[in-house]
Amino acid sequence: MVTQKPSSTRGWHKNMGTLVGHVAPGFGFFVIGLWHLLNHIKLYYLQPKSYTSLPWFPTSKIRYLELFFIMGGCSMSIAMELFIGPKRHQPFDPDGTIPSNHLHNFEHSNISVTFFVYAAFSLLLDKIGPPAQYSLSQLLGAIAFGQQLLLFHFHSADHMGVEGRYHWLLQIVIFLSLLTTLIGIGYPNSFLVSFVRSLSILFQGLWLIAMGFMLWTPELIPKGCFMNLEEGHQVVRCHGNEALERAKSLVNIQFSWYLIGVTIFGVSLYLILHQIYGKKIEYESLAKYEEQEEGNYDVEAQKNSKLGESKSSVHMGKVFAPMDIER
To answer: Which residues are listed as membrane-spanning (predicted)?
Structure first.
């Protein structure tokens, strides 16, 4: 009993570390996706004819709040992966090599570094203001999503188990973020491209949060599966192929539920903001149209009155002209 308690405690800490390692970045993706979704819909309603997609959105009080949020979150993620999480508070072996159980730490930190580069250069481009700054920021975002897709596709974690199925489905959402970001460079006036990109980023966050809870919470592990400590990390394993296939099918069903939920949320938010911004803009446009019509009516009335006066004066001139000649 004395020897089992410390091991279970260590396992609990590693379990919590892995859970937080997915939930924390997932929350970041969710916040950024929701922020973009709200702002893109608002921008589209305010400027429906001249809408142009933005790679990031400034705030009134702190212009670069979104970029600071990304850089801060990436810095925390890098510190957690490379310095706080490892036992020695550094990820290398005594001989300076990378141990196999820390390969995924470097993979995750490289993703964070790429998103940090995107945010830092987006801030710098905005301060300098060169031509094509928004297109370059979009390209940097596409590179970050491409890096993320590459490292998750060739992830050092096992792709055959339940965790692997979560990662495979995550790659679909990442690919959608990458694709819409690249398309947005050539079609910056397409609201639908920005709408789908924002939803995909939000979906990434939700799926990462789901992975954190479903894979490292013992009560949520599928029936017939268990948590096994391998190379210093807790991994979900199943008793036989039947239990494994059942667990994978449950992951597929969960993903489809999340897809339906995100779709309903996105379209509902669009309709709700239409009630707020769309009708307001329609009312303002109608008021301006009525004022313009009234102004045109007044101008036409003045023109008609002046035209009538000029016609009457011309007519009177024609009447009195012979009389003047005779006189």
So the answer is: 20-41, 62-85, 105-124, 136-154, 166-187, 199-217, 255-273
Residue identified by tokens 């859970």 is: 19
Q: Which residues are bridge partners to 229 per DSSP?
A: 234
Q: Which position has the token pair 């930190």?
A: 109
CB 36 within 8 A of CB 198: yes
For position 326, what pLDDT does the model report?
Answer: 36
Please answer whether residues 235 and 227 qualify as being in contact, where contact means their C-beta atoms are separated by less than 8 angstroms.
yes
What count of other Cβ atoms lies within 10 Å of the Cβ of residue 94? 6
**Domains of the chain by residue range:** 4-283
Average pLDDT over residues 270-294: 66
Q: Both tokens of residue 159?
A: 């792709």
Tell me, what's the pLDDT at 299? 46
Sign of CA dihedral 36, 40, 42, 46: positive
The span from the CA of 156 to the CA of 107, in Å, is 8
Q: Which residues pair with 230 in a beta bridge?
A: 233
247 burial level (CB within 10 Å; 0-12, 13-18, 19+)? buried
- 184 within 8 A of 197, measured Cβ to Cβ: yes
Task: Tell whether the torsion through CA atoms of 5, 8, 10 and 16 is positive or negative.
Answer: negative
What's the whole-model pTM score?
0.81
Ramachandran bin of 96, using left for φ above 0, alpha for ψ from -120 to 50, beta for the remaining angles? left
Strands 225-230 and 233-238: antiparallel
* Strand partners of residue 237: 226
Q: What is the average per-residue pLDDT within 47-55? A: 93
Gap between the Cα atoms of 45 and 120, Å rounded:
29
Q: Which of 141, 121, 125, 123 is nearest to 133 (CA)?
A: 125
